[in-house]
Structure formats: C-alpha cells, structure tokens
Specification:
Residues 1-59 form the HTH lysR-type domain. This protein is of the alpha+beta class. The protein has helices spanning 3-16, 19-26, 30-44, 60-84, 100-117, 169-175, 229-237, 251-255, 285-301, and strands at 49-51, 56-58, 92-98, 121-127, 141-145, 154-161, 163-167, 192-195, 207-211, 214-218, 222-226, 243-246, 260-262, 267-268, 271-277. A hairpin with a 2-residue loop joins strand 9 (207-211) and strand 10. The longest helix is centred in the first third of the chain and has 25 residues, at 60-84.
C-alpha cells in the first residue's frame, strides 16, 4: 500500500464527507478510494471513520490522524517542490471562485500577467455570486464582498469598496431624480433593483445611508431581485430601478452615459472585499502567489475610489 495515496484518499473523504466525491476529486474509482482507507485502518489497527448509509464521520482517533495527515501531506508537497526547484515558480491546479462582475472587469483582464509569471500554474475559475462550500466544491479560495459569515474560514481583506447609488437616464426621465433615501422605501416614489441570493434564501438587506449627522435605514421597494452581479448591473442600465453597488462596477457605464450617480451627497459604508480559504488546509505556494498577485491587481485598479 502506498501510504501517500492512502493518506490522500482519507483526507479527501473527510473533506468531502463522501467516498464518491473523494474518488471523483482524486480521479480514481470509489472502490479504490474505499480500499485505500480500509487498508490504512488495517495498518494502523484503528477505525478512522464511522460509516453509515448517509454520512461519513471521524472517530476520535480519526480526528487526530486527520490533522497529522494534513501536515504530512503539506510537508511532502513542499519537499517535492524544493527538490524540483519549482518553489519560486509553482505549478499544478488552483481552484478559485469569484463574483461575476469582479471576474469580468478585474480578474480576467489581468490573467495574461498572472500566466506570464506562473506558466505552470493551471487556474480553474468558478464565476458566481452563490455561496460556495470550499470543502464540498473542492475550492482552494473564494473572493467575496461583505462580512465573512463562515467563521471557520480565514479571510484576507483585499480592499474596502466604495458604495454608491446609480440609475439609468431613461429611468430618471420617468421617475425623476431622488433627493432623499426615503424615496426608495416601500411607500416612496422610486424602486430599487435588489440583489438577493436565491440558493441560500438570504433576505434583501436594508440600506444604511448617511449625510452629515443624519443617518437613515431604508428597506427599498423592488419589483426585481437578481442573484448575479452582471445581471444586476444590466437591470439598472435597462432602467428597471436604482442600483446600490460598488463604484468600480459603474465606471464604464458612467463614461458611456448609461448610468448616472444619484443621491451623491449621501454615503454608505464601504463593502469589504476579501479572499477566504480554509484554515486547516495547507496554504500552498500556489495559493500564496495567487493571493499576493491578486492584492497587487486590486491595488492597481483602485477599487476603493
């Protein structure tokens, strides 16, 4: 039995919670994954996993071995990288999930530079605004806006995004220019396009806006809610309502005359944009160089302006 393969199979079963998903991620059969873990248990003479028809759970011995196996696999990967002389130019696969507007406007246009620096690193890019389970989806890191809800993840802030409100000229021609946030409320004259995650069932968050010493919270009136950033912006450009979003998303549309900033004398709290990853996952050279590169890209783009 190859101890490396067995430990790798065991770790993937724990991370995915399934022999089937572990086998798929390792590109082996489910039978092979099962046999590797069984032989590992036989060699150690302990049960590492409790198996039922619905779930796989760690035993107390399995939990201890899992943490040690993670460190051993990480040390082995670093050792192989140093011997192969690729520590300065990491290779392999890196799986990342980012919001759709961020991918379109920031990340994808900058990727030629990334691949020029790291030609042996294969990036698998998920583009979505959905909630991603890093374990089940086997993702190395995600980029998301807002306060990190999952406290089991490590978050590194990339930037604080300036927030502002916008509307299309056609919409303003019909509804007029709003002068106070209360006009966006349910009984107001204006309506919002709302951003709402359909899969997670989250609610539309109220708007907190401030001008001088006056601070108001508005639960906007909306006839449309979308869960994709690009579709959200497109809805505003189409004149379906007022948008409240990071300012960098509006730059091109402002220049093209497709959007106009509204309520410009009112301010909203900045939206933190962070990259998050699992703390119990070895921070590989691949992930480190990607995060450092991403920080440089965000700083160059001036997304806080």
């Amino acid at each position: 039995m190859d101890r490396f393969d067995a430990m790798q199979a065991f770790v993937r079963v724990v991370e995915t919670g399934s022999f089937t998903r572990a086998a798929e991620s390792l590109r082996i059969s489910r039978t092979s994954a099962t046999q590797l873990v069984q032989r590992l248990e036989q060699r150690l003479r302990v049960r590492l996993l409790n198996r039922t028809t619905r779930r796989v759970a760690l035993t107390s011995e399995g939990a201890l071995f899992y943490e040690r196996a993670l460190r051993l696999l990480a040390d082995m990967a670093e050792a192989e990288a140093s011997v192969a002389g690729v520590a300065a130019a990491p290779g392999g696969r890196l799986r990342v999930d980012v919001p759709s507007p961020f991918a379109r406007l920031v990340l994808v246009p900058a990727l030629p530079d990334f691949h020029a620096r790291y030609p042996d690193l294969r990036l698998e890019l998920g583009v979505s605004d959905r909630v991603v389970d890093l374990v089940d989806d086997n993702v190395d890191c995600v980029v998301r806006g807002g306060v990190l809800v999952d406290q089991s993840l490590v978050a590194r802030k990339l930037v604080d995004l300036r927030m502002a409100s916008y509307a299309a000229p056609a919409y303003l021609a019909r509804a007029g220019m709003p002068v106070h946030p209360r006009e966006l409320s349910e009984d107001g004259a204006h309506r919002l396009v709302a951003f709402q995650s359909m899969r997670s069932g989250s609610q539309v968050l109220p708007l907190d806006m401030q001008r001088g010493g006056e601070r108001v919270q508005v639960r906007g009136h909306h006839l449309l809610a979308v869960d994709d950033g690009n579709a959200y912006v497109a809805a505003g450009v189409a004149g379906l309502g007022v948008l409240c979003m990071p300012a960098y998303l509006a730059r091109g549309h402002l220049e093209a005359g497709e959007l106009v900033e509204v309520l410009a004398d009112w301010r909203m709290d900045a939206l933190p944009l962070s990259v998050a990853y699992r703390p119990n996952r070895h921070v590989s050279a691949r992930l480190r160089v990607f995060i450092d590169w991403l920080l440089d890209v965000v700083a160059t783009q001036r997304l806080d302006a």
